Amino acid sequence: MDLLYKRRLLLAGVAAGSLAAITRLALAQTPERVIKIVAKKFDYTPSVIRLKKNVPVTLEFTSLDAVMGFNLPDFAIRTDILPGAASRLRFTPDKSGEFAFHCDVFCGSGHETMTGSVIVS
Ligand SMILES: [Cu+2]
User: Fold this and answer.
1) In CA terms, which of 19, 24, 49, 121 is 20 to 30 Å from 114?
2) What is the mean pLDDT of each run of 10 residues along the chain (121 residues)?
3) Ligand 1 centroid vs 73 CA: distance in angstroms?
């Protein structure tokens, strides 16, 4: 193997490495999925949220009327939802299945039926 060949091989390796780094950077910059959820007495829209296992997501909540809550116990996450403000929860579902969420702030008679589900596949 002559020196010139070795040098070309080295340059090709560096170029391939750079390309891989650029690809990783582009993947890292893929915008994260944000799911907007609107709460109003006594439901969430959407009430079924479909997610992918091990893919980070941001849930963004607003309320059209009262102070509400969002509690997803299987993933140990919750937030208050305030009228006129956005509440965000970022998490990465690490298990698949169907998981119930509910409002955990009393928002009036009917509050107890304020539920939905997260389906992770
Ligand atoms: Cu409630």
Assistant:
1) 121
2) 64 62 63 95 98 97 97 98 96 98 97 98 97
3) 15
